[in-house]
Amino acid sequence: MSLCLISAGVSKTLAIAAFTLVWTHSIEKIDWQEDWHVTPQGLELVQARVKGSGAGMEPPPEARLVGGWFQWQPRRAPMPEVVLGNSGMAGEWRLCHDGECRTLSAILGHPVGVHATTMKACQE
Question: Which letter does DSSP use for residue 104 in this model?
Fold first, then answer.
């Protein structure tokens, strides 16, 4: 499977089946991480982690504190696509794979800025 990223008319295909999406909350300045799988049914969110709580980012009741992170396994069906917005208030979305994290701008080869980025499983 591969992941497709589309933003401002530019698309990029990444030959990955799993990745972590990381961002910093614009108000709390706390990191949030989500682990995703790319499946034939779409993008599957398998685990979420947050380094704290507040300002609309409270972990759910089933979250457990592990290594300083509240973590839990969201229960939702795979999604055909995920659209990422960017307020410009907290830095960029980062995509991590095999121990390396890169901003969406670095991956796409242009400044993403306030443009939305669509993530989806590539049609192969």
Answer: H
